[in-house]
Amino acid sequence: xxxxxxxxxxxxxxxxxxxxxxxxxxxxxxxxxxxxxxxxxxxxxxxxxxxxxxxxxxxxxxxxxxxxxxxxxxxxxxxxxxxxxxxxxxxxxxxxxxxxxxxxxxxxxxxxxxxxxxxxxxxxxxxxxxxxxxxxxxxxxxxxxxxxxxxxxxxxxxxxxxxxxxxxxxxxxxxxxxxxxxxxxxxxxxxxxxxxxxxxxxxxxxxxxxxxxxxxxxxxxxxxxxxxxxxxxxxxxxxxxxxxxxxxxxxxxxxxxxxxxxxxxxxxxxxxxxxxxxxxxxxxxxxxxxxxxxxxxxxxxxxxxxxxxxxxxxxxxxxxxxxxxxxxxxxxxx
Length: 334
Fold this sequence. Notes:
- Residues 5-332 form the Amidohydrolase-related domain.
- This is 2-amino-3-carboxymuconate-6-semialdehyde decarboxylase.
- By secondary structure, the chain is of the alpha/beta class.
- It has a single domain (5-11, 53-330), classed as TIM Barrel, CATH 3.20.20.140.
- The chain contains eleven helices and eleven strands.
- The protein has helices at 19-23, 58-68, 88-107, 124-137, 156-168, 190-209, 235-244, 246-249, 273-283, 305-309, 315-330, and strands spanning 5-11, 29-35, 38-43, 46-52, 72-77, 113-117, 141-145, 172-175, 222-224, 265-267, 288-289.
- The strands form two sheets. The protein has an eight-stranded parallel sheet. Strands 2-3-4 form a three-stranded antiparallel sheet, with no helix packed on it.
- α3 (88-107) runs parallel beside α4 and α4 (124-137) runs parallel beside α5.
């Protein structure tokens, strides 16, 4: 039987240097350590997120994995450290620091913790260089944010980077970040509850309508977080608009949006069997990968609970969602 593989987890290493001194500029994230097992990510003087030892301690992660029946975690950066809004040279230094520290965390977990790197996506040449360095050092793939400022995933520079990922065989995990803010979104974690799904939906559409899937090779392995956001639910609306208002909607796409669902995958972080059924019906049983958003509180615990309790899945489909599809995404044999 295939191992159970969680493709959506995050890391926050401890012990990074003071970033203003290392990279220049100010207002960088830093870690306020409150105890041996608790800390607060700070951005300047603002509290961003409380975190625990699961973020940096491999034995804690492995214990939680054992509790949840997970054999392998893909370990990706926490998006607050992407630094896309910074000068590219500064973001490159940050990426190198955190990529090297993430390797140290994952090394303590042996082959059960699979590291994904981050890159300075605002500069495609530097992004490609850091991806190559990271792959040579032991990273297996890359996590990117879903946009760089006002540049979405159909931006020429980002497409250049995605083409390079296809060329070198690096899987790409796309995570929403830097959601819009404002009085209507700053209540009830609405930026995460509504903004994140909308961000992912917009970026999937940008790849389709911007013609990216018509430009990049089919060998590109791409997975969107959080079940693809709201895209799967509204795919019919996108197809309808493509046909009825093709004068403004079609953009650079050669075919309607539903034609491209075989070109990318989504994870299972949707929390409800009915939503998971929609994903499988929309994306196909080979394009849905187990994810949890571990170790953050909006993630799924126990990991894989929705997949395991969804009685509409056959045993073969369940095995694909729990691990087989993830192995294909990672380029590994079952």
